[in-house]
Specification:
Length: about 200
């Protein structure tokens, strides 16, 4: 699944097949529909692995971190439209998704207490499904691009600084197991921590 924030439909060409796809442009509806379809595919088999990579705008208030859709701020009387809480998504996937899950949030965590007052409820991208899979069976790894209250940075051309470091971590953290290459979560976390420091 791919969603790209763009003012007009974005065309992605698969580099292997050469097939073009028209990609959703990142409205709240696009975001919700894509995440819902992704979680259904990921959760169709407990032995699947899932990766959720969000690179975009984010805000925080206290311990709450949020992702923003392209529609954020477009409805003056519904200022929370297009705001989704990171932890709600991760917690829902404990019951919806496969055993192995990687979440990467390449986003600012700027403080915005006026946006998220205490007790403000936010719309959920996904709702947990009780009893679907034991939370003890799920292995989740969460990578955050910045420390609390910090900004994330990119370059004028190219990928974000965190994306660059994430790809470097994947290259350096690989090890050969049973004749296949693996990247373990501990190595990714250590590399990410060094980058944040």
């Amino acid at each position: 699944s791919l969603v790209v924030s763009a003012p007009a439909p974005f065309v992605y060409r698969n580099p292997v097949t050469g097939i073009d796809y028209v990609v959703p442009i990142g409205t709240t509806d696009d975001f919700e529909n894509s995440v819902s379809a992704w979680s259904e595919r990921a959760g169709s088999n407990a032995e699947n692995g899932s990766i959720f990579y969000y690179c975009g705008h984010g805000l925080s208030a206290g311990v709450r971190d949020c992702m923003l859709s392209r529609s954020f701020g477009q409805k003056p009387n519904r200022h929370l439209d297009g705001v989704f809480e990171r932890s709600a998504l991760v917690n829902a996937m404990r019951s919806l998704g496969p055993k192995h899950q990687l979440f990467v949030f390449d986003t600012c965590r700027n403080e915005s207490p006026e946006l998220l007052e205490n007790g403000t409820s936010l719309p959920s991208l996904l709702n947990a499904r009780p009893g679907a899979i034991s939370a003890g069976e799920v292995q989740q790894c969460r990578l955050l691009a910045t420390g609390e209250g910090q900004q994330a940075f990119g370059e004028t051309e190219g990928i974000s600084l965190f994306s660059r470091e994430f790809l470097a971590a994947c290259r350096s953290a690989g090890s050969k197991v049973r004749r296949e290459w693996w990247v373990d979560a501990t190595s990714l976390l250590q590399h990410t921590d060094r980058f944040l420091s």
